[in-house]
Design goal:
Layout lengths: L1 H13 L17 H7 L1 H9 L1 H13 L4 H10 L7 H6 L15 H30 L23
Helix pairs in contact: 1-4, 2-3, 3-4, 4-7, 5-7
């Protein structure tokens, strides 16, 4: 709830208009890998807060990924770009891969740039959230149970 309110304020400050609330029957679900990458609090906020999703999308759109970074990612991660035939043959991309065993850079460039922009947008969102939460003071008894400053920070839900 705190993240949603902070995101609503950030959207208002940026002139962004989040869509109306989503009915509980149509709540967005996130893939398990996204929850693992985002952390449970951010994942929950993105699943339930249109404002948080709007802010994340805006932050992602603001990111610029230099061509050198895209090319570097491709060059350092050849194992991710093996052709289906090379995968069937068990080619080691770091040892015995022939030039035709990897997908051409031009075919995968846009996907890499999109993934790097998404990652940069998430980093920007995490940075924004850390900064925004720094100014939040919780009412006594409503602190987050994992907050070490809370006297009962080890209790479980």
């Amino acid at each position: 709830m705190v993240t949603d309110e902070l995101a609503r304020r950030a959207c208002a400050d940026r002139g962004l208009n989040p869509p109306p609330e989503v009915s509980p029957a149509k709540i967005l679900t996130l893939a398990e890998s996204d929850v693992a990458d985002l952390g449970s609090i951010v994942a929950a906020a993105l699943a339930h807060s249109p404002a948080a999703r709007t802010l994340l999308a805006a932050l992602e759109a603001e990111q610029t990924v230099p061509e050198a970074a895209v090319r570097d990612y491709y060059d350092r991660n050849q194992d991710r770009f093996l052709t289906p035939d090379a995968l069937r043959r068990g080619v080691d991309p770091f040892d015995e891969a022939a030039p035709g065993d990897t997908l051409p850079y031009d075919e995968v460039r846009d996907g890499i740039a999109r993934a790097l922009r998404t990652a940069a947008g998430r980093q920007a969102f995490f940075g924004w959230l850390d900064q925004a939460r720094a100014g939040v003071t919780y009412s006594h008894g409503h602190e987050h149970p994992g907050d070490p400053s809370h006297p009962d920070h080890e209790h479980r839900h």
